Amino acid sequence: MSLHFADYLIILVYFIFVIGVGFLIKRKIKSSNDFLTSSRSIPLWITSLAFISANLGAQEVIGMVASGAKYGIMTVHFYWVGAIFAMVFLGVFMMPFYYGSRARSVPEYLSLRFDEKTRGLNAISFAVMTVFSSGISLYALAKLMETILHWDFDISIWVSAGIVMVYTFLGGLTSAVYNEVLQFFLIVLGLSPLVIIALQDAGGWNNIKALLQPEMTHAWKYMGNANDNPMGLHFMSLIFGLGFVMSFGYWCTDFLVVQRAMIARNMGDAQRTPIIAAIPKMMMPLIVVLPGIIAITLMQPALASKGYHIPTTASGELDYTMTLPSLIAHYYPTGILGVGITALIASFMSGMAGNVTAFNSVFTFDIYQSYFVKNKSDRHYLLVGKGVTVVGILISIVTAYIAKSFNNINDFLQLVFGFVNGPLFATFLLGMFWKRTTGHGAFWGLIAGTAAAAITHGVTIAEGKGGWIAPLYTIKSGMGQAFIVAAVSWIFNFFTTIIVSLVTKPKPDEQLKGLVYSLTEKPKYHEQKWYLRVVPLGLLLLVITILLNFIFF
Amino acid sequence: MLKKLNDLQFVIGLFFTVVSLILLLNVLLASNGSSNLNVYTGACFLVFGLSMIFIKGKASRQ
């Protein structure tokens, strides 16, 4: 693939706009709250699109297309099982606690609900996870540029990271959020023509179903037996591992996405943010799963005349990570090729900036201000926040080089989420809905859950990964292993938290008002029109999601 | 103009308008005759970009 003047011009225009947004926002940054929390001033449509865009990083776009090619339509489970239900739950049940408590971050909520040690544990593990994710986004982009454009890997990393650093350093969270919205439109509109033209080339959905193995085009039908489907998963593992533990663990507790709802202007908008975001999320498989399925269809003998193939690795295996770039190279001519490449770059920047801004908020408020330097001026924390932005990006660069040793970036990320997010949702579920839960219970539950995740990974092996203690149990796919790790960690956390809470002293009810469901005044939805109320909206989305699962059963 | 640039809806509209013009100019100026894909995409981006600029919804007035 080679770019021409028009392609480079589009990439350049994009860089000018994202950096320009940083400069425009810079004038509004007066305090640490402006820089790190946007002072809760962002309109609903922006928070909603930023909410979904923060999750639309390189691992989402490239990784899900790769999974679409590898696992077929089962990849939609990440959306129709592993996202919508949790997003609705977050909006209806959990945002009132996050937003109403006035916490600036998820770890700060934990300090209000439990204690400082629980906050510290969560803040540190989250910080580690965000720089991992940021580094993986960076690695994905650099590898992409090296492979398809023959740009130098190291230069790609440093230049790309430098651009993200400029606009996040200048405008902080607001700049990142504004750019995420621009990136959302660019990714969706930039990749839509590819889906349309490639689908047409593959002969439409009916022809895809005719050419592929049935388990590649049925989401549920072959999940009764783990050996019958490409993911190697039983439907119960999927529902509990992905649909409950990982999904709720990510969407309801990961500060990276929750932060986008926490910067809304009022409680109503904060609750509506994940629910409005669920609408485009529901449609996202059209952009990021369908291309993968189309790609594997185009490689069938009947369509050999189309001349498309997924690139192979040095060992001769299909390099699924290159599915989307190879589709772009195959179908996009000069001009729109620049749009496609820019959309890929945008997906990387979206993911990386989201991680960096979440990282600097948590580090500044929950680690630096809480444990190291208290009671300094606001300007001091503003400067620290800006400094942490630079440090976070430098750590991401180091992480990107570490990530080079992993094959499927999506599997790797799911594994990281399993270690950190899997157990976390049990802590929040008990903390928000059982007032007897104590700080000691939450802390030791998290420790037990994370340890259980590590041990489970150590005794299971999938695609050559894991089994570092003893490879006692073989799992067909890395994704299946990640679900099992998450499920085990959740169960250990849940029961450990309950047991320790029952033998330790809980906080008095007065200290838990606004933090626990039974002690919090419920929002009055009936005063609003039905389409502004989160419950009817959420129920409508759930019905549509269930219908989609049936349609593609 | 600077005030408008603070409006994200305007910025997004401006970006897609500029990109659409690049795509359409590329078609007009290319000696080898560019793909129809550029024309259709450029036209769609132009409509989207101008809509974002000129349709002032409730969201942008907030």
What does this structure look like?
The complex is a heterodimer of chains A (553) and B (62). Chain A has 553 residues and is mostly helical. Chain A has 22 helices and 3 strands. Chain A has helices at residues 5-26, 32-37, 44-53, 58-71, 77-80, 84-100, 106-113, 116-149, 153-201, 204-211, 235-253, 255-262, 267-283, 285-288, 290-298, 323-331, 336-372, 378-403, 409-433, 439-459, 478-502, 534-551; strands at residues 460-462, 465-466, 473-474. Chain A has a 3-stranded mixed sheet. In chain A, a hairpin with a 2-residue loop joins strand 1 (460-462) and strand 2. The longest helix of chain A is centred in the first third of the chain and has 49 residues, at 153-201. Chain A is globular and about 70 Å long. The model of chain A has no long low-confidence stretch (mean pLDDT 89). Chain B is mainly alpha-helical and 62 residues long. Chain B has one domain (2-61). Chain B is built from 4 helices and no strands. In chain B, helix 2 packs antiparallel against helix 3. Chain B is elongated and about 40 Å long. Chain B starts with a helix and ends with a helix. Classes of the chains: A mainly alpha (553), B mainly alpha (62). The interface between A and B is medium-sized, with 30 and 28 residues.
Radius of gyration over C-alpha positions of chain A, nearest whole angstrom: 23 Å
Tell me the major beta sheet of chain A. Answer: 3 strands, mixed
Number of strands of chain A: 3
First-residue to last-residue Cα separation of chain B: 18 Å
Morphology call of chain A:
globular
Rg over CA atoms of chain B: 14 Å
* Sheet/helix structural class of chain B: mainly alpha
Overall shape of chain B: elongated
Q: How would you write the strand order of the largest sheet of chain A?
A: 2-1-3
Spell out the helices and strands of chain A N to C: HHHHHHHHHHHHHHHHHHHHEEEHH
Spans of at least 5 consecutive residues with low confidence of chain A = none
What is the tally of beta strands of chain B?
A: 0
Strand content of chain A: under 5%
Q: How much helical structure, as a percent, in the residues of chain B?
A: over 70%
